[in-house]
Amino acid sequence: MTLAQLNALGEREARVELERCCGARQWAERMLRARPYVDRAALFAVAEREFWALGEAGWREAFSHHPRIGDHGSALARFARTAAWAAEEQSGAADASNTIKAGLAEANRVYEKRFGYVFIVC
For residues 105 and 72, which has the higher predicted lDDT (pLDDT)? Predict the structure, then answer.
């Protein structure tokens, strides 16, 4: 999607596209209110500013929309709107052995139990 296309979308359609980028509803709403964007730099500046302004609850909401590392099947089912992005992000783990995948699943479970949210690599 181009910047011009994002700027031209109706509010509902733009919200859907923005929520594909970040699952925090407040972030998407703030991004909607800041339209139209004059260029990519302006879009990215607002996106970063609004993400950091969310605080812990908003970040946790955003994180909850990310698939677990190595959980390719669940990612495709749960994150259908972002399946292509998830598949790309998961590509390194997709070809791993079953032993590695089981280890990732266990590590994800332990991490979530300890910290309360999904482990994300950026």
Answer: 105
Separation of alpha carbons 27 and 19, rounded Å: 8
> Angle, to 10 degrees, between the axis of helix 25-33 and the axis of helix 11-21?
130
**Residue (of 36, 1, 46) closest to 20 by Cα position:** 1
pTM of the model as a whole: 0.70
CA distance 61 to 118: 11
User: Could you tell me if 20 and 81 are in contact, meaning their C-beta atoms sit under 8 angstroms apart?
Assistant: yes
Angle at 61 between CA 39 and CA 59, to 5 degrees: 65
Cα separation of 58 and 60, whole Å? 5
